[in-house]
Design brief:
CATH topology: Immunoglobulin-like
Strand content: 35-45%
CATH class: Mainly Beta
Order of helices and strands: EEEEEEEE
Radius of gyration: 22 Å
Shape: elongated
Number of domains: 1
Number of helices: 0
Amino acid sequence: MENKNVIEKKENAARSVYASPKVDVQEIDNEYILQAEIPGASKESVTVTVKDGELEIRAETDISSPGDEVYTEFENIVYHRKFQLGRDIDTESVKAEVNNGVLTLVLLKSEESKSRNIDIN
């Protein structure tokens, strides 16, 4: 009886797929909180760019393995999303954090857009 491999080695196993991450945006007092789902992406793979009133998010997963892949259905995921920012955002003070597959951005409102009480004479 001849010994046959049950699983044949797969050529070009790893693929990349492109995805638009799901987001939630909340307004809290003087800031907006944007949360984007980027499961599997490391902190090092995430880039957040603000340019000309546009916010761009990019992230990528890496499923490379130390050994030769015999068979895989995993895919590298490249996340990408753009948002047009309102004039009320202070683009110089955007803060970002990645935790458990969620990118959280804090977008502060500019001083000019904050409400204030007007003294009446």
